[in-house]
């Protein structure tokens, strides 16, 4: 993969997803608002999210969410810190153009664009392509886990 900025080991150091749950293989480009990653793990016959040997397109949301986590990790590292842990809170306007992805032979291009960032969370848009072919797109809201814990503490929820 030419043009790789971060390989699998380097990007895995930025996110909590480890081992075969780290679905991304490389960061190809990123800036303050967006990230472009590549993945080939969808072809792994031992994929941890596969059911009966098939990997549903629904799992592309997780690929997008991991790209968002890597982006947050890169931004935090640039600022001299580490990313706050996040909790996936909302998935909206998701569109799938395929039913499954384990039968796709090409690498996946996973992109995420940060739309909103606050202390309490982030809103991203994501899309996954194979070349010019769109596989999935949508928006994901992530809550800062520290903020979520504080909210639970003040409401008395356990």
Question: What this model shows, in words?
Answer:
With 158 residues, the protein is an alpha+beta fold. The protein has a single domain, classed as Thiol Ester Dehydrase, Chain A (Roll), CATH 3.10.129. 22% of the residues lie in helices and 35% in strands. It has helices at 8-12, 60-78, 145-155, and strands spanning 6-7, 26-30, 34-39, 86-96, 108-117, 121-130, 133-144. A hairpin with a 3-residue loop joins β2 and β3 (34-39).
* Count of the separate structural domains: 1
SS strand fraction: 35-45%
CATH architecture: Roll
Mean pLDDT: 89
User: How many β-strand runs?
Assistant: 7
Q: Strands of the largest sheet, in order across it?
A: 1-2-3-5-6-7-4
Features:
7 strands, Thiol Ester Dehydrase, Chain A, disordered C terminus, 158 residues, single chain, alpha+beta, 3 helices
Summarize, please:
By secondary structure, the protein is of the alpha+beta class.
Record the SSE blueprint.
Layout: E1 6-7, H1 8-12, E2 26-30, E3 34-39, H2 60-78, E4 86-96, E5 108-117, E6 121-130, E7 133-144, H3 145-155
Antiparallel strand pairs: 1-2, 2-3, 3-5, 4-7, 5-6, 6-7
